[in-house]
Structure formats: C-alpha cells, structure tokens
Design goal:
It contains 10 helices and no strands. It is mainly alpha-helical.
C-alpha cells in the first residue's frame, strides 16, 4: 500500500495475465485492493471477484456492515444483528450458506429466521452502494491521471508556451493589479496619442526624405547655372 496508488511492475498486463491464468487447482491473491484499483486491469478483475463474492476482506466487510447500519430503512432488530458482524473477519458469500451460518453464529437469529433474510438483503444493498462509490472514485482517478498526462505532453511538445507560462507565474498578484490600475488610470487622450505616434513618425520620415531629395535637385540646378555663367 502507498498513498500514490503505485503498483510497480504489477501494472504490466502481461504479468497479470500469466499470474491469473497459470493456476490449475486454485488461486489466492493477497494484496491491497485499494492500491490495486488504481490500475484499470486490476480494477476490472477485482470487480469480477466482487460480483462472484470471492473477495475476503475484513475491512471491506466492516465497511459494508457500517453502511448497512447507517441505512435508515433497516429495522432496529436487523441493525442489532448487523452490529454482531463487526466481531467477524469474513462471512459466507452465498445466500443459503450465509443464512445457515447466521442462524448458528448470531445471537437471537434462531428465534427469528425472517430477520436473517432481512439481514442478507441489507448486506447486499450496502455492498452494491459501496461498489458504485468505489467505481466512481476509480474512474475519477483515471480521468485525472489522463488529463495530467495530456498536459505534460502538450508542455513537452511546445516548450515556448511552457517558458511563457513560467514568466507569467513570476508576476505577483500585486504587480498584476498595479499594471491594471495604470492602464485604467491612463487618460484616453494619452492612449490615443500613443497609438498615433508610429503613424506620425512615419510621416516625418517620409517628409524629411522628400525635402532632402528636393534640396539635392535644387543644388544640382544651381551648379549647372553657375557653370553656364562661367562659360
């Protein structure tokens, strides 16, 4: 078990295939179901095991019992039988075997066999509810992992955007607010003048060029006239 839900080499589906298909007479898998459910292949296999009632998990049993106890629709008599199940690590997974076991092991069950049927129905309903919650949590975890991998791939493919993102992050909230206030406080006339500056600069350059050319032409005409006068 680990907080990140990493399962190491067990994530290789080929190893999983060999592990689960080579047994001839029987197979017992010991592990942490919460950690294994972070892998989609293990999650499917654990769902299959749960659907066939072959998972022996003390904590899982107690979670189901706790969920059944919290269900308002269950009667006080059924909840009394449910609380007795906290002292057991496992119960028979099949309906008929469970009822025979409950009549034998649970105090007061033999006096009211109908309550045992209600007890079994309460456990089944709680197991279905918890299974749906776990499946939703596993799907959300997978979606988050896929989204994170996609973002990492985009950053790796476009390092320029990554660099710009870092530069953007360097700006403190106070700097961003000051920049916004400066823009808002700037008069409309000043902003209009800034927009006109490039155009006016181009006009001045063009005018200067034209005046220079005209001056050169006039200077050339004067030199020609002086040369004609000397002759």
């Amino acid at each position: 078990n680990n907080p990140g839900g990493r399962i190491g080499f067990l994530a290789d589906w080929r190893r999983l295939n060999v592990m689960l298909t080579r047994a001839r007479r029987g197979l017992i898998v010991v592990g942490n179901a919460w950690t294994l459910r972070h892998d989609p292949y293990w999650a499917q296999w654990l769902d299959w095991c749960a659907s066939h009632n072959v998972v022996i998990d003390k904590q899982a049993l107690h979670d189901v019992v706790g969920c059944a106890v919290r269900t308002p629709s269950n009667s006080k008599a059924v909840k009394g039988l449910l609380r007795q199940l906290f002292s057991f690590e496992a119960v028979p997974p099949a309906s008929k075997a469970f009822k025979a076991w409950a009549l034998r092991e649970l105090e007061g069950a033999e006096k009211d066999p109908e309550r045992v049927d209600e007890l079994w129905a309460a456990l089944v309903a709680a197991r279905v509810e918890l299974h749906a919650e776990q499946a939703a949590a596993a799907e959300e975890a997978i979606s988050s992992a896929v989204a994170g991998a996609g973002e990492a791939a985009e950053l790796a493919a476009d390092p320029e955007s990554k660099r710009k993102g870092k530069e953007t992050k360097k700006k403190s909230p106070g700097q961003e607010e000051e920049a916004e206030l400066d823009v808002a406080a700037e008069p409309e006339a000043t902003r209009t003048a800034k927009k006109k500056q490039p155009a006016e600069r181009e006009e001045k350059v063009a005018l200067t060029t034209a005046v220079g050319r005209e001056t050169e032409r006039e200077s050339g005409d004067l030199e020609d006239w002086l040369e004609f006068a000397r002759q």
